[in-house]
Design brief:
With 240 residues, the protein is of the alpha+beta class. The chain is built from five helices and eleven strands. A hairpin with a 2-residue loop joins β10 and β11. The N terminus is likely disordered.
């Protein structure tokens, strides 16, 4: 009697899933026909209550907002010989900054991404973003005297170092079409940019690490040559 009451209470919790009760001799499957009618609307436990598709990442604003006001700062330029962020990783083509580091606003990055999508409308591709606008920019109003705080929040921006990849693209597209899309996006963004492919050599600072150059040689400290050696390299203005 106790076993039947316990089985009935289990079935009332979730009526549509058969429960297995273990006795001392055998295992029997209980029927769900004894469940009350007001429990029939409970969803199945086997159904997924979540989505396997990851949520879209907002790369134009940080997830948690800002806790304190960010300083103006400067883009972090790697000086220890690192080439991180200078090569194409996920896509087949990329857009890389080549003049100098700067701060790019989220609105400018959004316009650049929309320009690429408009040019490739109707094509099958995937666009990757390698930067994130997570720096808050604060400004004061016009004709405001100095002092009295840093100012109020204005917009989000990203600090982009030199030779940094901004966008990557992957798809069954002709290279000339991708070049044209990145050219239009580069015209909308501040600075000078270059087109790169997957497999191109990385960049250390502004120097490309190609076949004739190695990372070990570039990481070596510069040796100060004596005066007679450096003077011998200067071309003479008059013949000897």
């Amino acid at each position: 009697m106790r076993q039947s009451i316990f089985s009935f209470s289990l079935l009332c919790r979730c009526p549509e899933i058969p429960y297995y009760t273990a006795s001392s001799r055998s295992i029997s499957v209980l029927s769900t026909s004894f469940c009350p009618p007001h429990k029939q609307s409970i969803p199945r436990l086997t159904q997924r209550t979540f989505s396997s598709t990851p949520p879209l990442f907002n790369w134009l604003a940080p997830k948690r907002g800002h806790n304190q006001k960010n300083r103006k700062g400067r883009p972090h330029v790697r000086t220890g010989g690192s080439t991180k962020g200078t090569t194409v990783v996920w896509g087949d083509y990329g857009l890389r900054m080549r003049d100098h580091d700067r701060r790019i606003s989220a609105k400018q990055l959004q316009i650049g991404a929309e320009t690429i999508r408009k040019r490739l409308r109707g094509e099958r591709y995937r666009l990757y973003t390698r930067v994130c606008a997570n720096i808050g920019v604060y400004t004061s109003g016009n004709e405001v005297r100095m002092g009295k705080g840093k100012g109020s929040f204005d917009y989000w921006a990203a600090r982009v170092a030199v030779s940094r990849i901004l966008f990557e693209l992957k798809g069954d597209l002709h290279e000339q079409i991708v070049r044209d899309a990145f050219r239009l996006a580069g015209n909308k963004l501040p600075g000078l940019y270059e087109f790169v492919r997957k497999g191109d050599p990385p960049v250390m600072g502004i120097t490309k690490v190609e076949a004739g150059t190695s990372l070990e040689e570039m990481q070596k400290p510069r040796v100060k040559l004596p005066m007679d050696v450096t003077a011998g390299r200067i071309p003479a203005t008059t013949p000897p």
